[in-house]
Design a protein that fits this description.
- The protein is mainly α.
- It has 2 domains: 108 residues, no CATH class; 59 residues, no CATH class.
- The protein has 8 helices and no strands.
- Helix 1 crosses helix 5.
Length: 179
């Protein structure tokens, strides 16, 4: 497989930096000049000045808060771009950077790793609880009214409830993120 040229790599890095800075501006998240400059950091190729820059980020913000901030900005920028049909730009840039050892790529991988947020996890928990509640309700009503269903009919009803809720969740997800 052919490796990307340094021009393609620099274009891809510029794209990432531009999208992160634009997302920060859109969200009103402040990035210091040191934080912005560190987006292009590459440890294996770092000059002493660039290493000092990273030390400043660590001193000013702290590594973990900085990475969390940048990861959130990347995740939000990616989702926004995908929603407006610009996923190909991300794919092209990330493909150009696949052999690179850049600090920002650690945060990109984390941002795109699962794509789940706390909101997504709460929604998933909600669907699970709704499914369980409906299943218990069906069983309680069946027991209360002495309903005897043919063999496997009860299981079929429970599966139908689970499938219906799954389809509802897919519908709600598609409605939330236009393609």
């Amino acid at each position: 497989m052919m490796r990307e040229t340094s021009f393609e790599v620099e274009q891809a890095m510029a794209f990432l930096k531009t999208r992160i800075l634009a997302q920060a501006a859109e969200e009103g998240v402040g990035l210091s000049s040191v934080e912005s400059a560190s987006l292009m950091y590459s440890e294996p190729n770092a000059t002493p000045e660039e290493r000092d820059l990273m030390d400043k980020v660590d001193a000013e913000t702290g590594t973990v808060p900085y990475e969390e901030k940048i990861t959130r900005l990347i995740r939000n920028a990616y989702r926004s771009d995908v929603a407006r049909g610009a996923k190909a730009e991300w794919d092209r840039s990330l493909r150009a950077l696949r052999y690179e050892d850049r600090y920002v790529l650690v945060m990109v991988r984390e941002a795109l790793r699962s794509g789940t947020t706390a909101h997504d996890q709460w929604r998933l928990l909600g669907y699970g609880l709704l499914t369980a509640t409906l299943m218990i309700l069906v069983f309680v009503l069946m027991a209360k009214h002495n309903v005897n269903l043919p063999r496997l009919a009860g299981e079929a009803i429970l599966i139908a409830i689970a499938v219906a809720l799954f389809l509802l969740s897919r519908y709600m997800e598609r409605r939330k993120t236009p393609e």
